[in-house]
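Quick one: structure for this chain?
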Amino acid sequence: MNIIRNSILRSLAALIVGALLIKYPDHTLAGLTIAIGILFLVTGTISLVTWVYERHNTPVFTAYDSGTGKTTIIDGRAMFPVVGLGSLVFGAILALMPDTFVRLQMYLVAALLILAALNLYMNLVATRHYGRVGFGFWLMPTIILLAGVFVLLKPMESAQLPLIILGWTLLLLGVTEIICAMTFLKMKRSKDNLLRPLRDPREDDFDEEEEQQGGGATSSEPSTGL
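Got it. Here's what it folds into:
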């Protein structure tokens, strides 16, 4: 029964998350972007705080070479964490301006798609000098170009589309798991009923006779007295 209960819990979670993704894809996308930004903020802050702490607590040694008469300063402190600062700035942008970041990112994706489609077109035009190019070769760059134009005109809708697809997929997963759990439970009960041994009524009569004989033997046992 634990398997059935776990399946039902997983299916309910998938149904709830899927419904939320379909109903509120914009809020979900913003929430994911903010969460990623907070992670970058935390890692960048920890890196900077660690650097400041080591900067103030790591001693600087001075080594004197008696042979040359030179003094060398040995600094064991860590260098400035450039990556940590970058993570801090990037996390702040993600957390404070999630929609702007997503929009810029989708514009970049649209530009890459359009450039890739134009490059394919130029390659096909160059290929025509050597022979005939089929219709299917022109279809693929056209689809890529249309996808790039759609992303360019509707950046936020394009960013939300994968979440909507994921939401419908989770709904399908939840419904499928519930059906499988119910089917498994029904088959298990049917098998348990088939394997349950059928008790012969004559066995009950035989047991009653044995009990009566045992009781009679006990009561008819002679008592020994002084």
